């Protein structure tokens, strides 16, 4: 692992179901610097949850390795947010405090709950979104070095999403927490994440700081012509009009209008390309 990486993988692979099972992840190599907020993106079945579970130490690699902080310094919020159904919200936080002696940050946990639910409620009586809040409160209360979130915002209403995303990002910035967050909501990642890891078919397709990746790509429209020496990520032609996203090799010179892509443009083009490759 490079010296300041908070999470790294080398030729990481995982096959479910023993030798006969299919590979969910294969030959994954990356190093995520400490303090980054990383978006983990990819189509359904790409291997995102598998990667997060490996990072959390809940699965063992079939091959290669993953290097992460010690278990007690990681908080992991799984997609199904496992919580004890018969505990109240207050008791759930008390359990968090008892399980994390000397480290528990009660005010961070309470900020996540933000008076939105009755602390005496039992977890089993909460809605999906309310449970998400409790799971996030437990995760932030743990004051982790590495926060692993598997589609954390999926069942939150838009206002709660906006509020919690802001809170998470501010908390991570204040404490230098490294965050890896899988999501299908591309618009929400823009502005929140400074690092990107795109998986498809169990492999890393794109990896790097968001600013560098954006700066390496150009959106162009204009007449159909040879795009060499640039690498075409995606192109479409309508009549004689060409629209393309390229990873440029030096300046893009030609008869085209060029613009800088947004993160959503970049992700959609790469996702469509990997979809096309799969079809
Ligand atoms: N427990 C399991 N047993 C067998 N195969 C599994 C298991 N969990 C996941 N898989 C398979 O591994 C692959 C990767 O699944 P994973 O859940 O990691 O993808 P994902 O990117 O998180 O998908 P989604 O966006 O739908 O949540 C898929 O082909 C899936 O069918």
In short:
This protein has 279 residues and is of the alpha/beta class.
Describe this structure in words.
This protein starts with a strand and ends with a helix. The model has no long low-confidence stretch (mean pLDDT 93). Strand 1 and strand 2 (23-33) form a beta hairpin. With 279 residues, the chain is of the alpha/beta class. The chain has a six-stranded mixed sheet, with helices on both faces. Helix 2 (89-99) packs parallel to helix 4. It has helices at 48-55, 89-99, 106-113, 128-141, 158-175, 186-189, 210-215, 263-278, and strands at residues 5-15, 23-33, 37-41, 63-67, 74-77, 146-150, 178-182, 195-200, 203-209, 217-223, 231-238, 241-247, 257-259. It has eight helices and 13 strands. The chain is globular, with a radius of gyration of 21 Å. The chain binds adenosine-5'-triphosphate. Residues 16-17, 24, 42, 44-50 line the site of adenosine-5'-triphosphate.
Layout of secondary structure:
Layout: E1 5-15, E2 23-33, E3 37-41, H1 48-55, E4 63-67, E5 74-77, H2 89-99, H3 106-113, H4 128-141, E6 146-150, H5 158-175, E7 178-182, H6 186-189, E8 195-200, E9 203-209, H7 210-215, E10 217-223, E11 231-238, E12 241-247, E13 257-259, H8 263-278
Parallel strand pairs: 3-7, 3-8, 5-6, 6-7
Antiparallel strand pairs: 1-2, 1-4, 8-9, 10-12, 10-13, 11-12
The protein binds adenosine-5'-triphosphate (ATP).
Adenosine-5'-triphosphate binds at residues 16-17, 24, 42, 44-50.
Domain ABC transporter: 9-226
Pfam families: ABC_tran (PF00005)
InterPro entries: AAA+_ATPase (IPR003593), ABC_transporter-like_ATP-bd (IPR003439), ABC_transporter-like_CS (IPR017871), ABC_Transporter_VariousFunc (IPR051782), P-loop_NTPase (IPR027417)
